[in-house]
Write a structure and sequence with these properties.
heterodimer; A: alpha+beta; Beta-Lactamase; Helix Hairpins; 4 domains; 5-stranded antiparallel sheet; 17 strands; B: alpha/beta; Rossmann fold; 5-stranded parallel sheet; 5 helices; globular
Chain lengths: 495, 138
């Protein structure tokens, strides 16, 4: 029986893939199995009687000593612990081992025996997993998209910084255990919950669903949400991972595109209608003139009415002009220009009633490259507005001045002024407070000035008057890039 | 404005209203006026007689005003033509082409007829500084 047991122990030792080693109390290796020798790259003969301590790298010897002292000598065995060995070729490798004390028949410690497992492969896998974890963490922390993991009950289990920012918390960990209901409107949270339930139930991912959410700061945000199920090894769904991408800017651009397409369509219509109106206006003017030639009026009333017709035709023509300018938006044709001269022409072409005093205060102007005709239109428009703002007369001051790299043109009237609530709408299309006019005059002015890289602003006080200020950059180079045209130029080059 | 020598004017426009009003005004002022509704009619008229001034619309069906103008210039190099259009920007290239080919000027509808009358006077004055405008014509 005894022989049988010894034989069985021997077979076990030789077939087991773990290393087995015996050491005497002097630290000499007494015997080991083939697996241990293979692990270290020595033959069993080489190892016999060698100093066991030498097989352990310097940095692990203190661990060995402590375990010997605190565990093995005290209670007869050690916990399983990890350390490294030095192979014959000098390389280190990790092991996990457990050692126990062997006593002689009298019970005195005779030596130790240890079972050693080579854990190189396990360590490698652990490292890889660790690397993957680090990569995932880095990805999650740095990606601008909100990423979150949820359990099957839609509770957050892990989230990233972008997600924390989206829900308005500082620390991604703050959301763990919470649900959408804690951060979003009930309506939104319910819909998201229903989506996630469906994913968990069917395993079908949700791809790029466009959602509008309200940020804690009150701003609306558009996101494209993708949610996919997470499965365990058996394929059972254990949660979902979601990515929400901010597409607010994209949405805004889409809307702007739609708006500019709509404006382009309006522009085409405006252009066609505008021209068709100009022809009959021309004929009416001719007819009025002819009637004037023929009618010898006695009481002046007929003449008065002919004048009225002519005046109305002219103002209709101005509106058509605005409409066409708005529809056309031609890039400026730059020519070397005397700005004060354009102003003088515009002022003399404007009808300024006798009860309005015009004060021209031209400052010294540099030669500039501008589109004369476009600027003349702007000036005519602003002067006309000023005149209309002073039905009972007043004073219009037009002043030019040169600054460092720009010139300023100011039109100051003593008219009725513009109510504060109307100021922001002043340059938007189709805004008008006039009985006549479709609200394109100042829109066109702004387009033209901006196409010259300048800007136009207004200050006004009801009952005191308004000042329109145009600032234009001083440019001496005619051949400057025209790539700075406003984005909305849908009608350029079209008839 | 009194025209002693009854200068001749040709109006070329597909717009009947424009033709009729210009015709009435100019004849009332003493001009001899002819009207053509399109480029081909205009060429016929010019082939038949020389005009002191031609008012020519640009956008017409069939042959446009500028092409008509060039044909007329081939027939009568001394012809003086004022182009007309309601399409200031859209017709810009055609206007420039006409001006390059020595069209007198281009006026934009709706125009002040007095301005047109001044232009006609100006042309007549240039052609006949001493008011004997027939001198240059065959």
């Amino acid at each position: 029986m005894v022989e049988d047991a010894a034989e069985r122990y021997r077979v076990l030792c030789e077939t087991i893939t773990d290393g087995i080693v015996s050491i005497d109390m002097d630290g000499r290796l007494v015997e080991c199995n083939q697996a241990f020798a293979d692990m270290l790259g020595y033959s069993r003969e080489e190892l016999k009687h060698s100093a066991y301590r030498e097989l352990t790298p310097e940095q692990w010897r203190e661990t060995d000593d402590n375990i010997l002292k605190e565990q093995i000598m005290k209670r007869g065995y050690s916990d399983e612990y990890e350390k490294e060995y030095i192979r014959k070729d000098g390389n280190l490798f990790p092991v996990s081992l457990r050692a126990w004390l062997i006593r002689d028949e009298a019970g005195r410690p005779k030596g130790m025996r240890a079972i050693i497992r080579n854990i190189t492969e396990r360590k490698k896998m652990e490292n890889e997993r660790g690397n993957e974890r680090d990569l995932l963490q880095a990805l999650m922390d740095n990606i601008p998209d909100a990423i979150y993991f949820k359990d099957v009950n839609s509770r957050f289990t892990r989230t990233n910084l972008a997600h924390a920012e989206m829900i308005g918390v500082n620390d991604p960990k703050a959301a763990i255990g919470k649900t959408d209901l804690d951060y979003y409107s009930e309506e939104f949270a319910r819909e998201a919950y229903a989506d996630e339930k469906k994913i968990v139930k069917t395993g079908t991912p949700l791809i790029n669903k466009v959602e509008k959410i309200r940020r804690p700061n009150g701003y609306a945000q558009w996101v494209s949400a993708t949610k996919v199920p997470i499965k365990d090894e058996e394929g059972k769904i254990v949660g979902i991972v979601g990515i929400s991408r901010d597409i607010t800017e994209l949405k805004r651009l889409q809307e702007e595109l739609l708006k500019s397409e709509r404006l382009a369509a309006i522009g085409q219509l405006a252009s066609a209608v505008g021209h068709e109106i100009r022809n009959p206006l021309g004929v009416i003017k001719n007819s009025v003139y002819f009637l004037g030639l023929r009618l010898k009026d006695t009481d002046g009333k007929v003449t008065k009415h002919l004048r009225i017709i002519e005046k109305e035709v002219n103002s209709a023509n101005l509106i058509v002009g605005d409409l066409l300018d708005f529809a056309r938006r031609k890039p400026p044709v730059l020519q070397e220009t005397d700005l004060n001269e354009i102003l003088r022409t515009a002022a003399s072409d404007s009808f300024i009633p006798g009860n309005i005093k015009l004060a021209m205060k031209p400052g010294e102007m540099p030669r500039m490259f501008l589109d004369q005709e476009q600027l003349r239109r702007v000036f005519l428009n602003i002067i006309l507005n000023a005149v209309q703002a002073m039905p009972d007369g007043g004073k219009l001051t037009i002043q030019t001045s040169k600054h460092d790299d720009s010139v300023r043109i100011e039109f100051t009237d003593t008219g009725v002024g513009i109510p504060e609530e109307n100021l922001p709408k002043l340059f938007t299309p189709l805004f008008s407070t006039k009985a006549k006019g479709i609200g394109l005059g100042l829109t066109v002015c702004k387009q033209i000035i901006e196409a010259h890289d300048g800007n136009i602003t207004v200050k006004s006080k009801v009952g005191e008057g308004s000042t329109f200020t145009i600032e234009l950059p001083i440019r001496t180079d005619e051949a400057r890039e025209r790539s700075t045209l406003p984005a909305e130029l849908p009608l350029e080059g079209r008839c | 404005m009194k025209i002693e020598n009854k200068a001749s004017v040709l109006i070329v426009d597909d717009d009947v209203g424009m033709n009729e009003t210009l015709y009435d005004i100019l004849t009332d002022l003493g001009y001899r006026v002819e009207v053509a509704k399109n480029g081909f009619e205009a060429m016929e008229k010019v082939r038949a007689q020389a005009f002191d001034v031609i008012l020519m619309d640009i956008k017409m069906p069939g042959i446009n005003g500028v092409e008509t103008y060039k044909e007329i210039k081939r027939m009568r190099p001394e012809a003086t033509v004022i182009m007309m259009t309601a399409y200031r920007q859209e017709m810009q290239e055609l206007v420039e082409e006409a001006v390059r080919n020595n069209a007198y000027t281009c006026i934009y509808k709706p125009f002040d007829i007095e301005k047109v009358l001044r232009l006609i006077e100006e042309i007549l004055a240039r052609k006949t500084p001493n008011r004997k405008h027939k001198k240059e014509m065959n």
